[in-house]
Amino acid sequence: MSLDNLTSCAAVDLDAIEHNLRAIQAHVGPGVRLCAVVKANAYGHGVLPVARAALDAGAQWLAVARVDEGIQLRQAGITQPVLVIGYAVPGEAAALVQYRLTPTVNRIEVAWALSQQAQGHPVTVHVKVDTGIGRYGLLPDEVLPFLSHLRALPDLHLEGMYTHFATADAADQTYMRQQLATYQEVLAAVREAGYAVPIRHAANSAAALSLPDSYLDMVRIGIAMYGLAPSDEVPSPVTLRPALSLISHVARVRTLPAGSSIGYGRTYICAEPTRVALVPLGYGDGYRRALSNRGQVLIGGQRAAIIGRVSMDQITVDVTHIPGVQEDDEVVLIGAQGDAAITADEIARLTGTINYEVTTALLPRLPRVFKRQGEAVAAARLIPPDSTAS
Ligand SMILES: *Cc1c(COP(=O)(O)O)cnc(C)c1O
User: Fold this and answer.
1) Is 220 in the pocket of ligand 1 (CB under 6 A)?
2) Hey, how many other C-beta atoms are within 10 angstroms of the C-beta on 128?
């Protein structure tokens, strides 16, 4: 597959995805199932190839946030269990049943609707307990009454019960341990009342890397699968390989005289004659405008500063100190080039956010190129592959 017809892309190393999941599986032990969290277009990486790589690496479950995301997986032929961890409205019950997605049910109206749609075929559901994140889920006291309603509805089968941590990415584990203890109490009461809960799960990436008591039957792995650390407070006991690189090419190089202004608003004025490279990627691709006059890119293995504003479709960088920069030279905005590297964490620090948002912010216009052993094996683009020269 040729990439000569792409100016900019997110290159996604599927071998890194597999490596990260296998390393996490080795860390949590063989008895714990992996649920690969591929919501939000696999955190911006491109959902279908990532989901398939995760399943190849041994994940038994996939998780998404929305019903449509689950349907997308089914329509692509993925048959493994898919947990919908977000809220679904009763009107989505028919689609949940039709596509054999596993809903999280915390509202009796949704349970009724699922039961009606089931028409004799059992629908498996998971129930979420809010042990202290204050978002989605039943409060501990609400669980038993809810389960007795659920039990009265035909064709609904309780398969799993889970919770979610608010502070798993913090060095101080006190609150996470409290949440886990609350969850264990709920599970004990549920067992006492005679319910079977085959799949108990609690851990996200940060907990799966740091709190063995939270592993239970399954861990839900998002950020760590993509090779990024959940935070700098939780050191990863496994070696993670970042999967995503953000790559573009020099579109034009010119020396501008001292006093020239660069970009909208003239926020940068060249103090001296300046060699300026134009890079065709901007906030319309998800590269944040907050990086104006702050971010750096790699060209020729060296750092080059962004000068002027990040535009929708392009940025300008100062390459005066880098000899021999030419049109078509590779530009790395996230990833490694030679001995230099720019991480998603560095971009996150500069833009006041977290690495999760840096990759998830990448927009559909930016082509995703999927690699195995360094070679491009697939691409996800706005236009189908057969309508482009390849
Ligand atoms: C997004 C999400 C995860 C994954 O979290 P990471 O920190 O990316 O591992 C796990 N569980 C739930 C409920 C989520 O919403």
Assistant:
1) yes
2) 22
pLDDT, residue 214, reads 98
Residue written as token pair 């239970």: 216
Q: Which residues make Cβ contacts (< 8 Å) with residue 259, sequence separation at least 6? A: 269, 270
Residue-wise pLDDT for 292-333, tens only, equals 999 999 999 999 999 999 999 999 999 999 999 999 999 999
204 lines ligand 1 (CB under 6 A): yes
| 241 CA to centre of ligand 1 in angstroms | 19
222 Cβ closer than 6 Å to some ligand 1 atom: yes
Which residue owns the Cα nearest ligand 1 atom 4?
222
pTM over 0.85: yes
Q: What pLDDT is recorded for position 390?
A: 44
The yes-or-no verdict on residue 386 having pLDDT over 70 is no
Q: Does position 204 have pLDDT exceeding 70, yes or no?
A: yes
Closest CA to 121 of 85, 152, 157: 157
Q: Which residue from 20, 28, 34, 37 has its CB within 8 A of the most atoms of ligand 1, so it is best to mutate?
A: 37
CA distances from 275 to 330, 337, 342 (A): 17, 21, 22
Question: What number does the ligand 1 atom closest to the CA of 39 have?
Answer: 1
Ligand 1 pocket member 231 (CB < 6 A): no
